[in-house]
Write a structure and sequence with these properties.
Order of helices and strands: HH
Largest sheet: none
Strand content: under 5%
Helix content: over 70%
Number of helices: 2
Shape: rod-shaped
Radius of gyration: 15 Å
Number of strands: 0
Structural class: mainly alpha
């Protein structure tokens, strides 16, 4: 696991928590920010997956 994968996963989890907090408190702004943070986290994790795939492919003889 590289740093982009780890940071992306962390942002996704934090975004889910923020979205749920927004739902519970009725704060649509917090809910939207949480959804955006999740999307950002998923994108960063995907970038990390691609980097890892390239790194693994270069290691193969």
């Amino acid at each position: 696991m590289n740093k982009d994968q780890a940071k992306g996963a962390a942002k996704d989890v934090a975004g889910k928590a923020q979205e749920e907090l927004g739902k519970v408190t009725g704060n649509a702004d917090q809910q939207a920010k949480g959804e955006a943070r999740q999307a950002e986290g998923k994108l960063q994790k995907s970038v990390g997956n691609v980097k890892q795939g390239v790194k693994d492919a270069l290691k193969k003889p």
